[in-house]
Amino acid sequence: MEGGGDSGAGSSRRKRQAERRSSRCHAEAPPAEETVLEIEMEEEDEVPAVDVKTARKALEDAMKTRERLEGMGFGEILRMDRMRPDPALTEALCSKWDSEVTAFIFPWGHMIPSLEDVSQVTGLRVYGCPMSGFTYPGYSELAHRLLVLAEELGAKADLDLHRFLILFLGRLLFATRGDAVHCQFLPLLEELDEVGGYAWGAAFLVHQFDSLSASERQTSTSGFFSFLQVWTYLHLPALRRGILARPDLVPIARRWDPCRDTRTLSDQLASLQEAIDYYPQLDVVWQSYLEEGDEGQPWLVQARPYFGRSVWVHALNLVLPLHLHLCQRSLGLRQSAVEFPSQDRTPRPGRSFRGLHDTTDWWTWLERRHRFGPCCTRKCRTERQPSWRELEQVRRAAVADASSSGVAGSSQSDLEDRLAVAVRRAEETQADLAEREIALRAATDRATELQGQVDSVAGERNQLHIRAEAAEARVTEVTRELVTLQVQGSSVDQEELV
């Protein structure tokens, strides 16, 4: 019994201690409403004050920057969504590229991306001033002045635009392998008001050609290859590598999405190469833009005079030709699939050219070496073929001399003189052809005039002949009447005698 009393006392003691602890906790805990009020007060204190003027100014600056980019001709390409790359397709295209003629060589013939493709697919301007200027051995001073000192001078808007353009051009339009951003376009960006006057679309096409040629010596490709993907969707639709998701948008690159392929890259590449080798020729689309209009696309209206022309396109130290005569079916002309012999490689300035290590004025270089003049493009005339053969012989001799003697200074000057003589002969031949054309036109006009005179004389002669025939018929009729009268008179005389 005693043990039971002790246990009851112990349990009651524990109950009293538990009650005291619970009452103490209730006393220390604040009311729930007060806690909520404290939390709300803390949240209100953490909310920063909004400066309406600063936000409005930032919005106005962003709108002005967007308007300036629109005026430069980059608005359409900046509206494009990021397209998923298709490395298998681009590598399959690179395997068909011939850097000698700057064209794709397919089993059905040559195909070349043209200025019309660039304008229709990307919306870039292919007309304007050529992208020819100066290249420097280093750009640190110019980059410091345009990208750093501008902030100290307070030109924040120009500073941000300069930085954006150098990243946009160096990492998107004219991207190269690696993470480095080249500053070769900085001299063209120095005057922002003149940026919109350059033919950025033509320069973009040159860079595409150069990247395709460089891919022959590399294991991977570089550059803005969304253009080549969409070009393939349009001209080789039977490959089924793209989906037409938004058919009403412009430029055309905004309409397409690449198809997903879960196979490995090697399997995709092998399948694409086989599909291209056995591609049905009747499914090749040579003219993809016959049903496309110009409505809402002002860049197409001004670019149409440059479509369908064999021209030279410029991008600083890169100058490459468009051999559209190799794919005349893209111009709506008839042409059979003809294999052209490979041409000897003509040395041209590239990324390893000495102009990148010295300050070079490419305007002077072009006028002295190729006589391109200040125009962005110049039509290739067939009348110059004999003279260009001489130029080709001189270039081949230059390559042979360079390989045998290491291109000594005296031989180089001699070769330059010979090249200048050949160019002079070409110019003289062109002038002679122009004079002959004028003389031929004058002779044609004179022959036309003489033929008109001959026709008028023949007409008068025919009229005289008709008049003579009418007079002869009249004389015959009068003679008949006279004979009739004579017969009647003799019969009357005989009656009177009787």
From TrEMBL:
Keywords: Coiled coil. The lineage of its organism: Eukaryota, Viridiplantae, Streptophyta, Embryophyta, Tracheophyta. GO terms for biological process: meristem maintenance. Residues 1-45 are annotated as: Disordered. Pfam families: PMD (PF10536). Residues 73-295 form the Aminotransferase-like plant mobile domain. This is Aminotransferase-like plant mobile domain-containing protein. Signal peptide: none annotated. Residues 35-45 have a biased composition (Acidic residues).
